[in-house]
Design a protein that fits this description.
The complex is a heterodimer of chains A (about 110) and B (about 120).
Chain A: E1 9-12, E2 18-23, E3 35-40, E4 47-50, E5 64-69, E6 72-77, E7 86-93, E8 99-101, E9 105-109
Chain B: E1 3-6, E2 10-12, E3 18-25, E4 34-39, E5 45-52, E6 57-60, E7 69-73, E8 78-83, E9 92-99, E10 106-109, E11 113-117
Parallel strand pairs in B: 2-11
Antiparallel strand pairs in B: 1-3, 3-8, 4-5, 4-9, 5-6, 7-8, 9-10, 9-11
The chains are: A mainly beta (about 110), B mainly beta (about 120).
Amino acid sequence: QSALTQPASVSGSPGQSITISCTGTSSDVGGYNYVSWYQQHPGKAPKVMIYDVSNRPSGVSNRFSGSKSGNTASLTISGLQAEDEANYYCSSYTSNSTLLFGGGTKLTVL
Amino acid sequence: EVQLVQSGAEVKKPGESLKISCKGSGYSFANYWITWVRQMPGKGLEWMVRIDPSDSYTDYSPSFQGHVTISADKSIGAAYLQWSRLKASDTAIYYCARHTAAAGSIDYWGQGTLVTVSS
């Protein structure tokens, strides 16, 4: 299985909103509401920002939100802050009972 | 508080065997699948394998099937990932993570275990 497709990089200025897409197929993203998003700062473990498409774990800022339309899931970060600069990955459960990750997106806060 | 605590960094030679661990606490370990994820130096996340600790049922990525073995001991709340013959290309950080109750998504991550394989 190929990785889910994410843009390699996105950027935005403080205070702006950005959206990162995660495109799969009907056998993964489109077929299940099991998409998660992770933030990873250099040298750190990933942190769950969104799970099950749009659920936010306790302690995660409400500036982070998730959605899905068809085979594409999206992570939106509003009110960008310097500390949001990190790598972001999506994942999805698949019809083969496996998990598939996206290739990752580097977010730069200008 | 849910925590996944992984064993420490390892330095091994090619051909050696290795078993790393992931100990869960703060929740009922048997009720949540555990997954292992590889991150090679400077690269992205790759899903490897997962296990249901209640009955040790497993799902493997075709990319890792036959090269690693996952196991779990629900009596002590621990999951393991092992190699019988390491290769230099196994050098990476390995993360364990917990699936949600529905078993589709991940909701908690361990801190990672760095495995270095070098002659």
